[in-house]
Amino acid sequence: MKLRKAYLAVAVLLAASPLFLVLSDMVGYREPLDLAAELLGLKDLSEEVNWTPFFDYTVPGLPPALGYAVAGAIGVAAVVLLGEALRRVLK
Fold first, then answer.
1. HSE (side-chain half, CA atoms, 13 Å) at 30
2. How far apart are CA 60 and CA 20, in angstroms?
3. What is the model's pTM?
4. Sequence-distant (≥ 6) Cβ neighbours of residue 34 within 8 angstroms
5. How many CB atoms lie within 10 A of CB 20?
6. Is 27 exposed, middle or buried (0-12, 13-18, 19+ CB in 10 A)?
7. Are 13 and 21 in contact (CB under 8 A)?
8. pLDDT tens-digit readout, 55-77
């Protein structure tokens, strides 16, 4: 039962995640690591070295807000599957 509640909470947060995308744009939020790299004068290689199809939490072909939620769902699914695999191996 506890696990169901956790999954429900994650689903609610995923559904609300596009709201955070909109709010972060409104307030001008930038990732702390991006700010630190800028302060150190490091070059942004993300455009040149793109190792993921979900660059900046987007999914090609989807509107940004929906892509943001889908990218989050894929990330959550990967963590849950990894956790489940580890649980089974350690059992």
1. 6
2. 20
3. 0.70
4. 44
5. 14
6. exposed
7. no
8. 778 888 888 888 888 888 998 99
